[in-house]
């Protein structure tokens, strides 16, 4: 895999994804939002709960493959492999950054 040179908040998110829910929540602004699987998770407590739930349901790895910048937003296409239907699959992570943290993350197929 080539080096994608991910912006620091995004690189921190993918690293934190394997470190636990609290580490993931710390990557976001105080009013950060995650949209995943049709649900919205707003604020640190909700983001941490989302990560706890996802980790309890699935074991997975994420490998970022491509990066596109669109203004303040970054689109990271990643291969996700694990114990879920359709594995492996490519997911698109759309990040909006603010003040060195993630303000919004939308995960979609």
Describe the protein's architecture and organization.
- It is a single chain.
- The protein has 109 residues and is of the alpha+beta class.
- The chain has one domain: Nuclear Transport Factor 2, Chain: A.
- The chain is 26% helix and 48% strand.
- It has a six-stranded mixed beta sheet, with helices on one face.
- A hairpin with a 6-residue loop joins β4 (73-82) and β5.
- The two termini are 21 Å apart.
- The mean pLDDT is 94.
Topology, number of strands: 6
Mean pLDDT: 94
Following the backbone from N to C, one meets helices and strands in this order, namely HHEEHEEEE
Q: What fold name goes in the CATH topology slot? A: Nuclear Transport Factor 2, Chain: A
Question: What is the quaternary state of this protein?
Answer: single chain
Secondary-structure content class: alpha+beta
Number of helices: 3
CATH class term: Alpha Beta
Gyration radius (Cα, Å) is 13 Å
The N- and C-terminal alpha carbons lie at a distance of: 21 Å
Sum this structure up briefly.
The chain is 26% helix and 48% strand. It is of the alpha+beta class.
Strand-helix topology:
Layout: H1 8-16, H2 21-25, E1 28-36, E2 39-42, H3 44-57, E3 60-70, E4 73-82, E5 89-98, E6 101-108
Parallel strand pairs: 1-6
Antiparallel strand pairs: 1-2, 3-4, 4-5, 5-6
Overview features:
109 residues; alpha+beta; Nuclear Transport Factor 2, Chain: A
């Amino acid at each position: 895999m080539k080096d994608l040179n991910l912006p620091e908040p995004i690189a921190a998110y993918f690293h934190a994804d394997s470190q636990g829910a609290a580490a993931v929540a710390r990557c976001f602004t105080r009013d950060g939002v995650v949209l995943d699987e049709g649900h919205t998770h707003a604020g640190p407590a909700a983001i941490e709960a989302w990560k706890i739930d996802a980790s309890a349901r699935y074991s997975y790895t994420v490998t970022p493959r491509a990066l596109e910048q669109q203004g303040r937003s970054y689109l990271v296409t990643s291969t996700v492999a694990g114990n879920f239907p359709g594995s492996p699959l490519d997911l698109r992570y759309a990040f909006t950054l603010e003040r060195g943290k993630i303000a919004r993350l939308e995960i979609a197929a």
